[in-house]
Write a structure and sequence with these properties.
The structure is a homodimer. By secondary structure, chain A is an alpha/beta fold. Chain A contains 23 helices and 16 strands. In chain A, strand 4 and strand 5 form a beta hairpin. The longest helix of chain A has about 35 residues. At the A-B interface, helix 1, helix 3, helix 7 and helix 22 of A face helix 1, helix 3, helix 7 and helix 22 of B.
């Protein structure tokens, strides 16, 4: 009766990890219901109300009993929420030393006895901390943990934890694979889609505190009065959940909507225009966060159009934002009109000399790797290279290069690989996460950005497991030292099941999934060999495009000798941008980890790999291993039938089937294409592709989603 | 606790009118549970299984008890489903006379005693009829009707009841205001979104039996092999619900995807290409319905590009479809490159001479009115004018000219106004619906098309009340003689509430809503004065565009003397296209109903109207009355707080607020603009607009949804 069940209690994925279904274990339910039978909220604020309501909602769903929300403590089994300011009870608990370590967003969550009554306290300096503590408590309940002797305190390690939406005003989403934009600009500001609040709830539950609403390939219309009213309406929905809104600033806006003849950042009229515009924004959104800016990159206008530097451009906006405590996140993903010999070098070349030239309220936003969100890249050389400048890291949660929304790829290991990379900027232990959390160079202003994978699909992310990447980004933004497995464990328990077999199986699939994807797409350090424009599927044969660095052959450099991009001193020299210790590791064929071999070296097809195979053989084996591993994922998933609700079981089963087909597409395309250079047989034991290379080269995907609109 | 309730049991609108919540009246619940405690399905088919499962789902939700689905009759209180072929029980009931009147899709639904056991029988000649009968029974349960002495039989009056989706392959929807296309082409055919089945269920529940998946402004890619596989996947989901898929055929496809140098319909290679292509389609979709075609209209290619007629074009496709029992719906909405003196005349001029020239499996698809889905139009002069040709009517369910998805406008009265119009083609009583149902000219091939208002919004249609228009279209397609009030009553009870006060209030709002909208948009026969391109909001000032008949001034012809389009013999003569009796009614100022006065006449500002007011005064009064009436709608709605679930209550309240603001926008824009011609004061008692005309003229809506994509 699949049909019946799916409609009656359809697990449509809308609830994300905030599923508050009745706990099956009756003992646990009783324990929770008795420990948490009332909520005390002495003074209300929008944020505290949101926290109390969420807790009430969760308890009602999980235990079947709706706790009272009281203004006074009346019995045992109460949760007291608040700050010393809002709660006389909390003020009476002598928490000042504890709270002094927690900052504006941290919280403590502990069991105690108040006036002889067993209670649980969620205390913080500010309301936002209380909200985060509340979601922490809910997470404990959702994952069946005891709430008997709580004693925890947590503070986010990074200040600005932000989703970047590459959403256009026509609701298309650049690199969006989960439907279209959540923001229904046409119906805003008067119609508030219930999703806006649920979006905010989901973000608050994982500590995300900012949202850049619009695409970095920006449209100046967003800065006009009708759109600012719409932005304000969203900000009003998000505010009780501790989330600030940010926008993208199109650098040429003073010309396009301001009627000026220039956007030169040093022009007094331009400065005045931005000052007034930004003052106006704050009349609509008093706590507006600031701007994310993509300038002089991929055709976007910027300060270089006027022979000014990126610092001139960023400082123009920063000066106007500073009186309102707004910030600028100026993206380092740039390339100019001249095609460089190695695009990997460009951001460093342009930004490194500007270190120290940015205002205090500017962060330079650097992608995790030097090219563009590939399945695997080394960390970006700018990390550690600009000690005088706050650097915020940009990850891509949406799977532009990782199978869109049809591939199960758990991205926490990818995020962690970069965060844990050692820049050696100040000697051993100068990890990227220490650059990002400000501890390496003692910055107060810190940030992390994730390009969202969220759209208006019923399940938000297109793929049920893509939700895990949103979740993981938030959890790592709060604490980059959390490990991938812990996060997966939490998410699986909250989202799918707490049954040990299910948790174990899903965790093993999730943790292996990124490496599997690297293998069937871009093993051994290959990169940027995907389909043209839409970036869907393989396209190692892409060449002869308007720019060489938009082609695949530019990056893989396959020839009869071998394959790979020589970035050592003998090649592009990109490796010189890293600290000497890093250079040392990557500079020789022997010391370079095989997973990045072809990123840094042009290697002979006959090179002997650690496995004893030649490079050609190893490449083939990796591709085949990747595709075979998807079969393994399918096997593990299929064994869970009956233990997963039928809706999501069928959905993921279908998606894994697509993933396997596409893994074969990648494998066959790449092996056949590279074979034209190696001239070697596919190794024994590997079934050769059943179609010729020409078949794969001819495949067309005219309406693959997520393409940049042509305005 | 709005927040809590909205997430726990959110009325998100996804279930449409198929809401199977527990019936509150315990007596009724017991009656139903006892009368319907088991389902007998003797032999299975996909359609019969769908029927049985749906009934089981409904009974489970409504009564709390899941009925067994048995192969044998075992006790009283059983529903027996089937055809004489599939059910020995039904074969034994001597229904052949009854069934002989029911055709392929009709059904009978009756109470009886079988082997001494009280039973309910749903019998039909074909499985589809059983499915429709099942949904009929469910509707009875949802609307609290007795199932004690059932004795009904129903047959659809129109053969092809079809939704037309103007959905593009990139998932944008032309004139779509409910998000984006349901069809996720990228993930098809391997991923089957659960919505596809729910879409089919909703359609089957109201008798819709066909779906044109793609935009009439078509892309030939849909006819290529990868897309046909995707189409087949959708067809497979729809088939158990009695729904055939249709596509749009781009006339130039033989050139664009076939490699031919011409698409001339008389060219043997072109004929051969279509024959092969259509044979190919049937290998993927054995019950493929056929094509809807827009040719030689608004820049679309067509037979006239080769100096052939529309009949030549339609017959080309019809001949290739005929062996497979496929049909062609050839749209009469055409206009050529020369701007006509009156576009209202063009379809008639081009098609009337072709009567009798079309193959037997061609219908000419005619919009309800001669211009384009305006808030009010007279019926199209082609109805009754082509007796030798099956004419299927095309309505627009999506509210392109009726406030997008933010205005509550119940369209059944608009549909009925046209269906009940008397063409006098064969004397008095030659109603449009008799043309459409084939009875007037004795056609077997009949059809009705509705341009869908469905998108991927969580609630499918954007506005909760827009769902009523989908519902009403289906119900009227099944039986065009049903009245608007009955349909509204059913829908309200199934969708919102059965409480008498709620039903009464909502019904009065719904039934008045279309006339209210006419008043604040286009009273007295005005038409086509909306905003340029996006068609959002008022634009009576639109002029100087590439074609005169794309402007507003072409249609309203306001000048210092008066306003309106003279379509009498003194003017464009469009009225001559109607039967003499119709001409007589519309040809004089005295006999022409005021609601169409300015459609047919250019009338002096000082003309005395029935109200005793001058035309100018009446026009102003209508605009003000329209806007004021939205306030009345708001008042009625707001009085229902607490009687409507909080989610939808707040949603509709917000939407009515938008509707009121936009009604004021229409009113103020039009009154101020037409005042520049009349030179008269706004009548006493009506508050003049608070902003000047220039304010309204300058408003820009750069990202209004639903615009045709520029490929």
């Amino acid at each position: 009766m699949l049909l019946a069940s799916s409609l009656a209690k359809a697990e449509d994925g809308y609830r994300l990890w905030l599923r508050y279904d009745l706990i099956e274990n009756a003992n646990l339910r009783t324990e929770y219901a008795s420990a948490l039978n009332a909520i005390v909220l002495e003074r209300e604020s929008d944020v505290l109300k949101a926290a109390a309501y969420e807790l009430s909602l969760a308890l009602n769903g999980l235990t079947g009993i709706t706790p009272k929300i009281n203004k006074f403590l009346s019995g045992a089994g109460t949760v007291v929420l608040g700050t010393p300011e809002s709660s006389p009870i909390i003020a009476s608990l002598n928490l000042s030393e504890k709270l002094s370590q927690l900052g504006a967003e941290g919280y403590c969550l502990f069991s105690t006895t108040i006036k002889g009554k067993k209670s649980i306290v969620i205390a913080a300096n500010k309301d936002a901390g209380v909200l985060y503590g509340t979601f922490h408590l809910i997470r404990l309940l959702q994952t069946s943990q005891s709430v008997k002797n709580l004693s925890q305190q947590h503070t986010p390690k990074i200040q600005h934890r932000i989703l970047n939406h590459w959403d256009n005003l026509d609701r298309t989403v650049e690199r969006g694979y989960a439907g279209f934009s959540l923001w229904d600009w046409h119906k805003l500001p008067d119609y508030i889609d219930p999703r806006y609040r649920d979006y905010a709830r989901a973000n608050a539950s994982i500590g995300i505190n900012g949202s850049v609403l619009t695409n970095v390939n920006s449209n100046a219309q967003i800065l006009t009065e009708p759109y600012l009213r719409k932005v304000a309406a969203l900000a009003n929905v998000f505010r009780p959940y501790g989330i600030k809104v940010y926008l993208t600033a199109r650098f040429s806006a003073p010309v396009e909507i301001g009627g000026l003849s220039t956007a030169d950042p040093l022009d007094p009229a331009v400065k005045e225009w931005w000052k007034k515009k930004i003052d106006e924004i704050y009349t609509y959104v008093p706590d507006f966060g600031g701007f994310a800016v993509k300038a002089n990159s991929e055709g976007q206008p910027g300060p270089q159009n006027y022979n000014r530097t990126h610092a001139d451009g960023a400082n123009l906006l920063a000066d106007a934002l500073a009186p309102h405590n707004g910030i600028v996140m100026w993206r380092a993903f740039v390339y100019d009109n001249k095609v460089p010999e190695d695009r990997a070098k460009q951001a460093y070349n342009e930004f490194k000399p500007l270190d120290g030239k940015f205002r205090e309220n500017v962060m330079v936003q650097v992608k995790n790797g030097p090219i563009d969100f590939q399945p695997r890249e080394p960390f970006h050389p700018l990390f550690g290279a600009m000690p005088q400048t706050p650097i915020n890291i940009e990850f891509q949660i949406t799977q532009e290069y990782l199978g869109f929304a049809t591939h199960l790829v758990y991205l926490a290991p990818l995020f962690k690989e970069c965060l844990n990379a050692d820049t050696y900027a100040k000697g051993k232990g100068s990890f990227v996460y220490k650059v990002v959390d400000g501890s390496l160079d003692n910055h107060q202003l810190t940030g992390i950005a994730g390009v969202a994978n969220i759209g208006n699909d019923r399940n938000w992310c297109g793929h049920p497991f893509a939700q895990a990447n949103w979740f993981a980004f938030g959890r790592l933004a709060w604490d980059p030292t959390l490990n991938s497995e812990t996060i997966a464990d939490e998410w699986i328990r909250m989202t799918f099941s707490q049954e040990p077999e299910v948790v174990k199986s899903l965790k093993s699939v999730m943790l292996a999934s990124r490496e599997i994807t690297v293998n069937y797409m871009t093993p051994l350090g290959l990169h940027h060999i995907m389909g043209w424009d839409h970036h869907y599927g393989p396209g190692p044969w892409i060449k002869d495009k308007p720019r060489a660095d938009w082609t695949s052959v530019y990056y893989h450099k396959a020839d009869s000798f071998g394959i790979g991009f020589d970035r050592t001193k003998n090649g592009s020299g990109a490796l010189d941008q890293y600290a000497p210790e890093v250079q040392k590791q990557y500079s020789t064929l022997e010391s370079c980890p095989e997973e990045l071999l072809l990123w840094f070296h042009h290697v002979s097809w006959d090179h002997k790999m650690n496995s004893g195979r030649t490079l050609w053989e190893e490449l083939c084996h990796r591709y085949y291993q990747g595709a075979d591993s998807v079969k393994w994922m399918q096997k593990l998933w299929n064994a869970l039938e009956g233990k997963i609700d039928p809706d999501r079981f069928v959905q993921v089963k279908s998606l894994l089937n697509i993933q396997h087909n596409e893994a074969l597409l990648w494998r066959n395309s790449c092996v056949l294409y590279f074979q034209t250079f190696s001239g070697k047989e596919i190794p024994a034991g590997l079934d050769p592709p059943d179609k010729p290379l020409s078949y794969y080269e001819k495949l067309q995907f005219p309406f693959a989603p997520g393409i940049r609109p042509k305005w």
